[in-house]
Amino acid sequence: MDEKMIDLVVTSSPHVRDKVKVSSIMLDVIIALIPATIAGLVFFGTKHTLGVILISLLSAEIAELLGAWMFRKPVSVKDLSAVITGLLLALVLPPSSPYWMVIVGAFSAVILGKWVFGGIGSNPFNPALVGRAVLMISWPVYMTRWSKPFSPVFGPNAVTTATPLNIIKLHGFSRLLAQYGTRANLYKALFIGNVGGCIGETSALLLLIGGLYLIIRGVIDWKIPAAYIGTVFVLSPLFGRDPLFSILAGGLFLGAFFMATDYSSSPITSKGRLWYGVALGFMTVIIRQFGAYPEGVMFSILIVQLFVPFFDKLLPHVYGHRKEVKS
Amino acid sequence: MKLFTFKPGGVHPPENKFTKDKPFVKMSPPSIAVIPLSQHIGAPNTPTVKVGDYVKIGQVIGTSSGFVSAPVHATVSGEVIAIEARPHPLGKNVQAVVIKNDFKDEWIEEPKKRSLEELSKEEILKLIREYGIVGMGGATFPTAVKLSPPKGKVIETLIANGAECEPYLTTDYRTMLEFTDDVIDGFLVEMKATSAKYGFIAVEDNKKDAAEKLDKRVKERGIKNVEVVLVKTKYPQGGEKQLIKAVTGKEVPAGGLPLDVGVVVQNVGTLKAIADAVLNGKPLIERGTTISGTAIKEPGNYIIRIGTQVTEVIEKAGGLTKKLRKLIFGGPMMGLAQSTVEVPVIKGTSGILFFGEEALEMAPSEESPCIRCSRCVDFCPIGLMPLLIDHAWRRKDLKEAEALNATDCIECGTCSYVCPAKRHLTENIRYAKQAIIKQRKIEAAKQAAFEKLKALREKQAKEAAAKKAEESKGGKENG
Fold it and tell me: Which of A237, A263, B166, B320 has its CB surrounded by the most CB atoms within 10 Å?
């Protein structure tokens, strides 16, 4: 036998691995966000909005490099996770956000939201939401200036509007209904996304398409969005709110499909994810009803994510054990 | 046919069963047979021959007085040229009897046929033991032991394992197709030996033709208490615990045996070997093995003499097509990578896979940080949290790993397979498991030593007290 033909490596089994990589998962998330991103550009124009998106993406990437350098970790730009943070942040900002604010938000998201906790996989909160929370607290005026779809974001012809949730917080549901004529018209506007709001949150339809794509691809567990949206649907009528309106309005779909499902800040067990979704729905309804802000998705996610270690204790059944064992 | 499956977890890796349609071919006997004295789990055998002896096929060359053991037989006729430690597919070097084949193929005795009716339970078990039958799915547990339950345990159900869920491997499939009646015969022998009431032959539904053939023969032969069932094509469907769950709905208790739920699972290849041994009088001297992978010229299903070294297997399978970088005994999910081509085929060798450079990409060694995607949790067929056990092991926190039930891991490899960060989860859980078991042994030894010391102290104290009492008594007397 020719010795040169043999050069054996010995490794531990398994000797095959699935094709799925961290970067391929992240790429799927980016693909799933494209429809909603395009919707944002259509509704709010490319002139300023595109700048917000690109600056957010670029700042997040630079922040990623900075974070890796600061915390002496290997550069992980290839895993695309910073692209998702940058894109998600842009989608939860008002179309008229000043560029400097976007930069602050992106750096807060990546450095404060992720790197200070140890980088990818270690963040207890969704990084994009940390960035948004920083901006919300620091510059509430810019963060609540909503542009009307299909009108210039800036300039003499700029038209600002209130979000549907804003209107019902201030004036009640009847005022909102009066604006649209019929419930069907209102639902349609919300479903398509032709309302005031953050760049990527308005079109429930396109977010749903993206979300279903992620579920089919096995990237996210359906239980989180289903439990979250379902709970909001069931609990809203208890406070006299229209259930369908409550799930279509605001940032619920974006939050439920793309924010609450962030791997490192969501539970790792199946049961945990179900109850985590329920808790998110409960918190969102409470904040919308009793909080100072009209929308509660961001703060509910940030609050409930603090309890992920608790949800992680809802353990799967271990084969051959009579009862679930405590860890 | 009914379709069963286990839940939750499991994956479906690309099957790559390229040798599916290749009938068994007898590989010509090796010029040198290297027969390890230990090819089973349990007490090692001692040689019953010495260097220079002439041995014939079927002659016992190693045996043990231990209960959990199986003898080994000469698989070629010829001269014993060495008895020494040689590379073994399970790792360490192991004592082996090396026989130079004289190609006369002389048998120690003409294999004699027996009919099942004339054999008693005890006789069957004795034959299975004498003929050296062990679990041929890879576990190599002595079959006679498996079929002899301790007092108080009853075997109710027998399951023939024809799942063959490992990618690449087609040995069991070909066995079921080509030796359908032998498999059924072996199963009936087992049923008689254990007085089991029910029998299931479980076949993955990607091998429907084999299942149908078995089903047809079972019905034609009028066998009433044996049912052929389909199980979903999903890895690790052929895992003993998973198969029992799928077919009977029962779970083997943690740390227990299938016997605890009245079940015994037997690989279909083992059943064929049982039929060969008990009914046809042939000891386990050869077995069906799938030769596959990208680096071998003539992949296929071969019947190979035990003790044939991979060097000869390569020659007889047309040679290598490219530089051999990985040699796997078993399937790609649970098989063992070999460090040398000197290793021989043993009783548990269900497949030999040959790969070139691409093997290094099939299982990249570089890890990236865990992203907590929880795929390992979602796909674990046992319900463990591999990422947390892995974290615990990296911190060397054995207590935590134990609390996370690391010892329940069946090492199926699913967690590592699905991990997008390519982390070495299975490997680390295996280390954790071994360390915990070692730790338990140390603790038990410590406890035993402590008890011994305590007993000694107590005895000493008692003696001292007795002495004192005697002394004081004596003192009084003196005073």
Answer: B166
